[in-house]
């Protein structure tokens, strides 16, 4: 019997299961309103079987909100909010809004007003200095919280969640780093809790004793000098005393230097934070962050680390995850791979949230169901990378019959390369999902078939294909750099796939994502593996310092050379900083603004863009990571010779997985 799918309560609120969709600010409400896009997004998640939906941050005022945020700061939003509630209720799920005030994380360029905070300490996120809240203004913010909660109740929501995590306003009051007040809101931990507790008390007064209140806390701020799980436990105990019904435990602040939700965070890594809180309170506790499979969720509940499990991005990636888990179809769940490329990176770019693996996310209203074709087409796809497979999946669902020819002996194409560096294995899960989906749908994949134009034309003639899709991807570029004999010159793709071995002194030419990936893979050589680390730690065999050195200092000397300014510029903002920090940790020498002039027997001759000085950097191996070019010859040769011919993914233009998947989806529903 599954614990995850057993009914449970938060206060008076009866839920059909213990899976909670944690809040995501989606950027779907340009004017703060509930609209069809938002309603259909959440309706799909409710239909998918989740127990409770927490609507992503809802602005309680106009000084602490963000772009495209759903607003709950005015009665005029109530009718729209009610429509949202009704849609979710009709699908059997419950729904609460998250009441959001960002404090010094709000940006004046978006709100039009200076941000506010307990103390005027510059924000690491915005670079702006907030205004210190006077006691009078504090009262106004508390009123905004309680008025918003009352509106939520009027709109028919099943409760509210208050955000006291991630470095937003309430966490700013809780932390000694951001709260330097000398009045009753500042000082020791008890005083710093005052604001948060007053918010809860005001809300409780506004909504009455039975309306469920959840508070989202940071299980550890992961900010030097700020609160840890110890202080968070004390806060949660105080929250329980003032009538909070559940605690939602997330990780650290946005400004933390400890990755929170990137691909390198091990699944379920932060469940221990929820457990720490659970040991201190008797109200239900929700564990979250990178809990990306139902099996892991079940395990967390089984081990007693929490009472509920939160998932945000896994439900963006696959709204049907709960239903699929309940019916034993876990292997058809489309996995969230923690890339952030469609979701969080979009928020940083002030764009609405989408998803790399799910082209429908955020477009449920616009797209509806995959249209069923009136006439079944026989389609030949060349290439079983993510573009070819996603096309095949979607076109088959639309009623077509698809055959794929794949040159190699496996599916996934470049996903195998993207998955090769340390902590990037999730790309492999996407490849596995697409291959399984194609297999289940009866897509015929013929391996070890290198298509030529003649073969395609013959197949079209003899086998009756009425449509051909070219999804042949890309190949790495070999630059025309002058080379002397003697230095080993390899392609990054071959190194990543283990087809070629480097020496000990390696220069990587190209500091984009592929160069960074390759450097991180090579930097692992000769470092401690996790099993040995665990053994040495348990035995107290080495000092922490020595273990850190052994984990980060491998056997190779690595230099990354980049012609223009900046390393890893094509990596999304939410992930780039963490990968650059890894390069630094591993002492990878990164030289941007350096052009390679020659590859010589003794190393590489480079010129600095700034002062045009030249030097030779010694190396025994040079690895090329300077980009890729489309494999579009088939398409070019076949143009005009076939009735319906198209080209998708990297074959059309080398880009990213998101582009390949979304383009394939669009082609698939044509
Ligand atoms: C090291 C590396 C890291 C990357 N990291 C990321 C990342 O972090 N995020 C991201 O979004 N993107 C990343 N990318 C880019 C991403 O992997 C590609 O954009 C995407 O996989 C392209 O998919 P595709 O299906 O269009 O092409 P491919 O994956 O190249 O697939 C093409 C397929 O066609 C087959 N094929 C080619 N010619 C023929 C033929 N004549 N007959 C039959 N079959 C043929 C190939 O064998 C291959 O399987 C990375 C790429 C690399 C190399
Ligand atoms: C695009 C995006 C927006 C988010 N917005 C919020 C938010 O408004 N409030 C909040 O508490 N957490 C927010 N989060 C954090 C998520 O609730 C969740 O804790 C995080 O994504 C990790 O969980 P997951 O791995 O299940 O996605 C957001 C996350 C993403 C990716
Ligand atoms: S974009 Fe990436 S991280 Fe975000 S939900 Fe989709 S797969 Fe997950």
UniProtKB/TrEMBL annotation:
Q: Which InterPro entries match?
A: Aldolase_TIM, FAD/NAD-bd_sf, FAD/NAD-binding_dom, NADH:flavin_oxidoreductase, OxRdtase_FMN_N
Any idea which UniProt keywords this protein has? Answer: Flavoprotein, FMN, Iron, Iron-sulfur, Metal-binding, Oxidoreductase
Keyword RNA-binding belongs to the record? no
Q: Which Pfam families match?
A: Oxidored_FMN (PF00724), Pyr_redox_2 (PF07992)
Positions of the FAD/NAD(P)-binding domain: 378-639
On whether Iron-sulfur is a keyword of this UniProt record, the answer is yes
User: Which cofactors are required for activity?
Assistant: FMN; [4Fe-4S] cluster
Gene3D superfamilies membership:
Aldolase class I, FAD/NAD(P)-binding domain, NAD(P)-binding Rossmann-like Domain
* Database matches in SUPFAM superfamilies: FAD/NAD(P)-binding domain, FMN-linked oxidoreductases
Q: Where is the NADH:flavin oxidoreductase/NADH oxidase N-terminal domain?
A: 4-328
Write out the similarity annotation. Answer: In the N-terminal section; belongs to the NADH:flavin oxidoreductase/NADH oxidase family.
Protein name per Swiss-Prot or TrEMBL = FAD-dependent oxidoreductase
Q: Which organism is it from?
A: Desulfosporosinus nitroreducens
């Amino acid at each position: 019997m599954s614990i995850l799918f057993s009914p449970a309560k938060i206060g008076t609120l009866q839920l059909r299961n213990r899976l909670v969709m944690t809040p995501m600010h989606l950027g779907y409400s340009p004017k703060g309103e509930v609209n069809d896009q938002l309603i259909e997004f959440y309706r799909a998640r409710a239909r998918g079987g989740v127990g409770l939906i927490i609507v992503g941050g809802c602005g309680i005022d106009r000084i602490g909100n963000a772009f495209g945020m759903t607003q709950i700061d005015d009665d005029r939003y109530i009718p729209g909010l009610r429509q949202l509630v009704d849609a979710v209720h009709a699908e059997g799920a419950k729904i609460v809004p998250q009441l959001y005030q960002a404090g010094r994380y709000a940006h004046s360029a978006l709100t039009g007003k200076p941000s506010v905070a307990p103390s005027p300490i510059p924000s690491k996120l915005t670079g702006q200095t907030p205004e210190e809240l006077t006691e009078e203004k504090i009262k106004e913010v508390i009123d905004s919280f309680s008025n918003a909660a009352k509106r939520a109740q009027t709109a028919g929501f099943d409760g509210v969640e208050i955000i006291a995590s991630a470095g937003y306003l309430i966490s700013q009051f809780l932390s000694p780093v951001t709260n330097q007040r000398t009045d009753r809101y500042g000082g020791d931990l008890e005083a710093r809790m005052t604001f948060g507790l007053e918010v809860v008390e005001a809300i409780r007064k506004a909504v009455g004793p039975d309306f469920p209140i959840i508070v989202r806390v940071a299980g550890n701020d992961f900010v030097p000098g700020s609160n840890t799980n110890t202080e968070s436990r004390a806060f949660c105990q105080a929250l329980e005393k003032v009538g909070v019904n559940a605690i939602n435990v997330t990780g650290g602040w946005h400004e933390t230097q400890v990755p929170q939700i990137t691909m390198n965070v091990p699944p379920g890594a932060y469940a221990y934070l929820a457990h720490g809180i659970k040991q201190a309170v008797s109200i239900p506790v929700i564990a979250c962050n990178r809990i990306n499979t139902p099996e892991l969720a079940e395990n967390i509940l089984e081990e007693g680390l929490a009472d509920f499990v939160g998932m945000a991005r896994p439900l963006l990636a696959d709204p049907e995850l709960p239903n699929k888990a309940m019916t034993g179809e876990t292997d058809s769940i489309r996995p969230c791979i923690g890339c952030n490329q469609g979701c969080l990176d979009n928020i940083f770019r002030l764009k609405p949230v989408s998803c790399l693996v799910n082209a429908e996310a955020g477009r449920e209203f616009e797209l509806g169901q995959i249209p069923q074709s009136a006439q079944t087409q026989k389609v030949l796809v060349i290439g079983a990378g993510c573009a070819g497979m996603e096309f095949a999946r979607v076109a088959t669902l639309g009623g077509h019959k698809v055959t794929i020819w794949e040159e190699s002996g496996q599916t996934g194409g470049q996903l195998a390369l993207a998955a090769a560096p340390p902590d990037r294995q999730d790309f492999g899960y996407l490849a596995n999902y697409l291959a399984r989906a194609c297999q289940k749908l009866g897509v015929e994949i013929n391996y070890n078939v290198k298509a030529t134009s003649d073969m395609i034309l013959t197949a079209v003639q003899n086998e009756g294909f009425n449509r051909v899709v070219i999804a042949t991807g890309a190949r790495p570029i070999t630059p025309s750099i002058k080379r002397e004999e003697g230095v080993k010159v390899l392609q990054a793709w071959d190194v990543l796939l283990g087809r070629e071995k480097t020496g000990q002194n390696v220069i990587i030419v190209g500091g984009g994502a592929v160069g960074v990936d390759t450097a991180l893979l090579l930097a692992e050589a000769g470092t401690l593996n996790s099993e040995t680390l665990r053994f040495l730690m348990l035995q107290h065999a080495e000092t922490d310092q020595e273990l850190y050195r052994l984990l980060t200092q491998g056997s190779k000397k690595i230099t990354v050379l980049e012609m223009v300014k900046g390393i890893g510029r094509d990596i999304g903002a939410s992930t780039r900083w963490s990968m650059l920090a890894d390069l630094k940790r591993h002492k990878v020498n990164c030289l941007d603004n350096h052009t390679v002039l020659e590859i010589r027997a003794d190393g590489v001759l480079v010129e600095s863009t700034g002062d045009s000085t030249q030097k030779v950097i010694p190396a025994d191996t040079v690895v090329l990571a300077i980009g890729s070019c489309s494999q579009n010859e088939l398409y070019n040769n076949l143009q005009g010779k076939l009735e319906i011919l198209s080209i998708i993914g990297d074959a059309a233009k080398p880009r990213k997985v998101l582009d390949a998947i979304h383009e394939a989806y669009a082609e698939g529903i044509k």
